[in-house]
Specification:
homodimer; Arc Repressor Mutant, subunit A; Tetracycline Repressor, domain 2; 2 domains; DNA-binding; transcription cis-regulatory region binding (chains A, B); MT1864/Rv1816-like_C (chains A, B); transcription (chains A, B)
DNA sequence: CCGATCAGAGAACACTGTTCTTGACAGTTT
DNA sequence: AAACTGTCAAGAACAGTGTTCTCTGATCGG
């Protein structure tokens, strides 16, 4: 009955259930947060007994890893989608696109954002071999933008020695062959990191409501100004 | 036997046990993180039965609130101590002092930092009436620094319209009488927030190792450069 | 000294993650 | 077609959790 090259009933069922688990788990994550993610609750939603879940997932931590990779990929996809139409645009508008995508995605998926960029889950370390590929996608995008820069804008009031020493601390990282830093100078990398930290700090503050709710009447405009500031830090009036 | 005005055995015991609970709970928090903070474990360490703890603490969340206030005050004290000798120093060096104190404190108390600035604990909202006083101390310090500024440095490459719109989003906040914003203009406030976000993003990235361990050979120098950048954003070459 | 108040103990309930055993079925091999 | 093998799910169990009772003493104010 089944075509000769078919995956087989078994394999197909397994794949179906695996995606189903992911789906339910992500829903639970969104609704109750990472710390409250319960295998039993997921199992209940799937009309399964808790132990049965262990056929598909090695442990709670393993499920968490799955969700982390999923979240990283979701964010990566969102960034790629935003960057697609801007392929030939100036680096600074590409940077702004990344920043605003990060913000939008974070506000839409606060639990996922917390999972990726919030406090680390205690006694859990994400296995690098499974998360790295997805986790570095956005950073890679950022680095390609910085790679085009040979110099860095000179802001009034900067202490040159402090800046140089800070950049020097990234020297070994720049030379690390594992990180594909296509000829970025330490100074540029330090600036790019700072720009990213600025964006990131702003998003975290808004998503986690660290300054309380409703700080700004127009959060979008406020963030646009912040992102604009970040581009000024990284690109100056280049382009 | 007991002096007439003595607090009485009961009251004294209670006070002693209350501080003891705080002490043990903070140790557990530091060792295992907020999510793993267990009332039963704390009780065990105090040679108490779990239910006895409920004479002193209304719930686990209540204990968490206690720890949050403690942490905020600890950070506030650290910042105040760092700022003390710099009373007459330039705002920019006071800003740097706040930034570096935040970083040092965060690295020394990562669990407390995660509690205050990391992902919010699910299904827990810190009761504002108990945390506000301690929670706003550092922000108040920051604002007094910004209050001296009448204008904001003009960075090359900034889009003026974007900046103005972003600042306008803070207009109602500036006018809010509840927040004692001693005459800070929206533009200055927006810049101050950005400077803070930059510092904050850098600290979070380092404490939570979001870019992996050992990004910089000299994290202190790297952070100094970041803080320097933040002062340039906020103060320019003023002072 | 006595009744009111409070501290702590102990048991219980409803949860959690995880492991082990056991029975049923699918897929493959003979 | 029969026998074997690996997979799946169920069920029970263990240790842990937060929380709420009830009950016994100790401490307090009058």
């Amino acid at each position: 009955m089944t075509p000769p090259t078919a995956p087989g009933i078994r394999a197909r069922n397994r794949a179906a259930i695996e995606t189903e688990i992911r789906r339910v788990a992500r829903r639970h994550l969104a609704e109750s947060g990472a710390a409250a993610l319960s295998l039993r609750a997921v199992a209940r939603d799937l009309d399964m007994v808790p132990s049965a879940l262990y056929r598909y997932v090695a442990s709670r931590d393993d499920l968490l890893t799955l969700l982390i990779v999923d979240a990283y990929d979701d964010l990566g996809d969102a960034v790629d989608a935003a960057l697609g139409p801007l392929e030939d645009a100036a680096p600074r508008s590409r940077f702004v696109a990344i920043a605003e995508t990060l913000r939008t995605w974070a506000l839409e998926h606060p639990a996922d954002y917390a999972l990726l960029f919030g406090s680390p889950v205690p006694d859990y370390r994400a296995p690098a071999d499974r998360t790295n590929a997805s986790g570095t996608r956005v950073y890679a995008r950022l680095l390609t933008l910085a790679a085009g820069l040979r110099t860095v804008p000179d802001l009034a009031g900067l202490d040159e020695a402090t800046q140089l020493e800070g950049a020097a601390a990234l020297d070994t990282l720049v030379r690390d062959p594992q990180v594909a830093l296509t000829g970025v100078t330490p100074l540029v990398l330090q600036r790019a990191l700072a720009a990213w930290h600025l964006v990131h700090g702003a998003v975290t503050s808004e998503v986690f409501e660290q300054l309380g709710p409703d700080v700004a009447t127009d959060p979008v405009a406020l963030f646009a100004a912040t992102a604009d500031l970040a581009t000024a830090v990284l690109f100056g009036d280049a382009d």
